[in-house]
Amino acid sequence: MAPAGKVFEFYREGNEWFCKTGLPSDIVISVDDVNFHLHKFPLISKCGKIATLLESLDTRERTSTTALDGFPGGTDTFLVAAKFCYGARVELTPRNIVMVYCAADYLEMTDEYGEGNLLSKSESFFHRNILRNWKDCILALQSCEPVVSRADKLQIISKCSNALSMMVCTDPSLFGWPMMMYGSLQSPGGSILWNGINTGARIRSSESDWWFEDISYLSVGLFERLIRTMEARGIRPENLAGAIMYYARTYLPGLGRWQGGQSGKTRAVASFSMIPAAVDQTVLVESIEKLLPQKKGKSFCRFLLGLLRVALILGINNTCQESLERRIGMQLELATLDGLLIPNYSDSDTLYNTDCVERIIHYFVSSEPKVTSFSPSSFDLQTSPSPGPLRKVAKLIDEYIAEVACDVNLKPGKIRSLAEAISESSRTLHDGLYRALDIYLKQLNCSWMHTPLSVHTDEIV
């Protein structure tokens, strides 16, 4: 070994990495098909795993060769660990801390192999720097995706989720967070200072949704775990629903078509330079449905109907579809006609998915009034059920029948089943139903001019 404190030069030639020390390499370590030509002593003095591996290798060979399968972080992270073993100064950042932390654990770089080893340094940096800063915590959590299992083992995901949840739900005044922009309590960039620490979060005294965009960069799995943690921490259901809806609109572009211009707003909470997660839309819809709280509201109902449309396009599983239909049925009095006009995405000849709407009606009729409402300050949602929900739904269904009645392929039996899905006593007036039937019979008369009209009216009556 060269004298302590000497900085060694690492350089790359093609698919090979070398360390220039003046001594020939006596160990080659392969990571993701890239070979590192290194020296045994610096490695075994810091890495328990490599020391153990070398014990099992044939020491008669001049150069030992071994591969590190499944190394967390790949070649870039191994290079950081190797430099550390040679005494070089390594920079820990919010973007690399998780990978370096996991790599140090993989290589067993514990203090048993030298005080202040990479594992303890990574752990200290993670707790002192990452968990106290909103932006850095988000960056670290996002980087857990490729190494979820090892990050779980080290409790990185749970600690990040708990820290973020605490920052979102804690009363700012309890931790010295400014409620308004108070000069020295605000960083030059406009971020909130928490006991002098830059949290990376902007001051939003009048908004509770400042964090929606930030967490939307997480993968579906990490987002779901964060929301579950926030829920356990007691964050208000309407805020969680808002975050979930924002996330869904981010990764389901078609959802915005049925939201009445309520697509997610563009914010500049923190410039993370983050890349949106790669999302499987089917997995996303199934996860979103499970995360959504059992609540009621006009905007929430519209969102559910849009999500159902997307689910039908994606061919979602029956359990998820049934759950969405049930959720909508429990607040059908808050739905609008355009929301119920769900196109038929199957091979059916009919224009609209009347079977789906009929199931929703049955869920409404059979549901009990157990659903609470959001506060009126969020998503223009209501605090109590509208008067006469049965009458409102009856009127809505009559309008729906009148709209779909123009479909020449709609069978008379379907018109009848839709009309009978709501009890007759629910209608104070039958004008809407008569109008719907009149539209349907007129189109029947035009389409089936050569068939006696009585043949078809018998199926309806």
From TrEMBL:
Family to which this protein belongs: Belongs to the NPH3 family.
InterPro entries documented for this protein: BTB/POZ_dom, NPH3/RPT2-like, NPH3_dom, SKP1/BTB/POZ_sf
Record flagged with keyword Cytoplasm: no
Keywords: Ubl conjugation pathway
UniProt lineage: Eukaryota, Viridiplantae, Streptophyta, Embryophyta, Tracheophyta
Species in which this protein is naturally found: Ilex paraguariensis
The protein's name: Phototropic-responsive NPH3 family protein
Domain NPH3 stretches: 209-461
A Pfam entry, by short name: NPH3
Family matches, as SUPFAM superfamilies: POZ domain
Pathway: Protein modification; protein ubiquitination
Residue intervals of the BTB domain: 25-94
PROSITE patterns in UniProt: BTB, NPH3
